[in-house]
Specification:
Elements (H helix, E strand, L loop, with lengths): L1 H8 L26 H9 L3 H4 L3 H27 L4 E2 L1 H12 L6 H14 L9 H4 L1 H5 L17 H4 L2 H8 L3 H20 L7 H24 L20 H6 L6 H6 L15 H11 L3 E2 L6 H5 L31
Antiparallel strand pairs: 1-2
Helix pairs in contact: 4-5, 4-6, 4-12, 5-10, 11-12
The chain binds zinc ion (ZN) (2 copies).
Amino acid sequence: MKSLWTSFVRWFDTQHQVFDEGSVDGEGKPDWFRLTPLMFMHLLVLLVFVVGWSPVAVIVAALLYFIRMFAITGFYHRYFSHRTFKTSRAMQFVMGVMGNSAAQRGPLWWAAHHRHHHRHSDTDEDIHSPIAHGFYVSHIGWLTTREAFPTNFESVPDLVKYPELRFIDRYDILVPVLLGISMYGLGAALEAWAPQLGTTGWQMFVWGFIVSTVVLLHGTCLVNSMAHLIGTRRYKTTDESRNSFLIALVTMGEGWHNNHHRYPGVTRQGFFWWEIDMTYYLLKLMSWCGLIWDIHGVPEAAKAEKYTKLPVGDAATKPATPPSTPPAAGGAVGQ
Ligand SMILES: [Zn+2]
Ligand SMILES: [Zn+2]
């Protein structure tokens, strides 16, 4: 009973009963009760057969998919996890809130797990490696474990010093719930003021929030699972990361994962013009507007490095990959 209560409170407060050393009770086992909202969201997708569809609801769902995918790849990944560019403190908070709206936990939790992935890619330590633990665990299974639940603050000393980021990381359900309510409100407003669009509050909630968020989660998870399984390897890295055009399209540029594991500190992940990287183009646009700066371009050495199509399973013999880039504690904000 006590553990059910603990799991329930953790829906709202991710610090509840998390001990100082960042551990929780019963590590390794899935915490099914805490996962109820996640599982419930997958079930709610079926409501599309109840609420029907309209062009406006599907367009909003697609827009929210791409805006939030950009927030995950451009902000959670290329900024919070790797600090590949700089920005102001206010913009940093906006980026944190936008990433948080994807319902993939808070920016500190996300970045800490991702830095861990780069430190231990495709070894037993890497909790979402398809090579070490199989497809299911790498794609979604790792998220269900108790050990993956707490935020490891020691991995993100450069982020933990901002109370506003700690707040959205601790109460990470807040922004997604507000987005869900806004979607209902948008649909209800359109129903009242533009009935010819054929939408309703519930229809917009189901498409704009539920469907969009579930598809976005699996799109993001593809980078952990499939981007280490399918595609080609340009660089010899200490893992099985791959470059895949298809994954790059779905994830707005994250499919150039072998490039990224070789040069994790580079903002751009598509190294050549044909390696489409929508996230980078949008970040470039933001830099022209003065919202972010000091974007790290592709080093000449990266292009000069001899192109070789490496066979599957070559990672065992590789030289060490340069360490991941996040600075120890120095802030990139405002500098
Ligand atoms: Zn990876
Ligand atoms: Zn990364």
